[in-house]
Amino acid sequence: MAENRPLYLGPRLRRLRRELGLTQQAMADDLEISPSYIALLERNQRPVTADMLLRLARTYRLEIGDLASEDGADYARRLGDVLRDPVFDDIDLPSLEVSDLAMSFPGVAEALLRLHGAYTREQQALAEQRDAGPGRQDSDPVREAQRFFANSRNYYHALDTQAEELAGEIDKAGGMEKWLGTKGVRVRFLPSDVLMDAMRRFDRHNQQLLIDDSLDGASRTFQLATHIAHTAMRSTIMQIVREQEFASNTTATLVRRALAGYGAAAIVMPYRKFARAVEARKYDIAALGGLFGASFEQVAHRLTTMHRPGEERVPFFFIRVDEAGNVSKRLDGAGFPFAAHGGGCPLWNVHQVFRRPGEIQTQWLELPDGQRFFSIARTVTSGRGRYGRPQVMRAVALACAAEEAGRLVYAAGVAPNEAPSTPIGVTCRLCHRAECVARAVPPIGRDILADDYRRAAQPYSFAES
């Protein structure tokens, strides 16, 4: 850093504040300065003094070197690279103007970089779709993360064993709040407007874990467990992530977050204790939720992970969809064929439970190749807690192989081979049932029959070859 050169850290300071979950007022209080001064610093209208740099490092326990590197030069370089894109060829963009933009208007510079990044990713995705061959991997981070969990059957022995040890320590301490207290962390339950609508935030400066006080009991417990997973199990989670080669940082972030959720569930529902209860209660999800203080969806998640060697339980596939049919979560603990694309068949009752919210519905399913499954579906809601807060209703479903259904309370006394089943498809594009009246699009590889004088009940009729 040049001796007499002013130091502008606007974007970096703003990112730090957002990462800490602080308002400008809260950061100003921490640093004993005015909120307006914070605003000026973030807009690069004031340089960061040596004293302010020391205050930031001391207050938020950061390295000065990490803070002191300037963003302006980096923004100018990155903007210069972006503006050399051929799409801007006919625009005169002097380097001095680019530098001034990066230094004087860091927010605009960051917005341009984000917009160009999104544009570039979309261009790459379109090119890959056109060039992809039969064996080409999908570059979508969500799909890549789903494949990662499917390949391991959603079971991580290191996380489960560590979670059992932590659960034992937590029981001895008298609960999660007291256990966190032994680590120097105070738990506080605060109104959501104080938390800026965050459900959970960790105040590193004051070593406080702040939880939305309008969450229900199961959600509070899970947020506490998630913080414990992110901290006490961090090295185990990072080791699992480092062992993989993901196509993007976004995939790694999704996997890391999901593994923390896995760890939290394993703390709330320790493997051996949960496995015994599962057999005793014949997979009754509501009963298990009452025993462990967990929600219907949390228990359903946990049931997909029961694959410890020698202590396996019924393997399940889990899916969560909204009323528009968008799949927001898919967990495969059984290697089912609809793990990669399934969830879009309207004949599966996971799409019909919205008509009777909160009621469990069961269904026997049969795929085109003859495989049969048993499904349990129900609606779940999120976002509740206070008046005026929007609620989101989704449907979740668990499915297991038909031969395993007899172990479930939901199929007690029903012979799998005698139960009437609903013919469904993995997805319309991959389902070749010619007689399906619910079909949305024709399957890949089938020609539509040209028939101008006859209209069948199903949307499409297909040529024989």
TrEMBL record:
Pfam families from the UniProt entry: HTH_3, Peptidase_M78, ScfRs
Domain HTH cro/C1-type: from-to ranges: 13-67
CDD domains for the chain: HTH_XRE (cd00093)
Gene Ontology cellular component terms for the protein in this record: cytosol
Keyword DNA-binding among UniProt keywords: yes
Signal peptide from the UniProt entry: none
Keyword check for 4Fe-4S: no
Top-level taxon: Bacteria
GO molecular function, one term: DNA binding
Keywords on record: DNA-binding, Transcription, Transcription regulation
Similarity section: Belongs to the short-chain fatty acyl-CoA assimilation regulator (ScfR) family.
Protein name (record): HTH cro/C1-type domain-containing protein
Organism: Novosphingobium mathurense
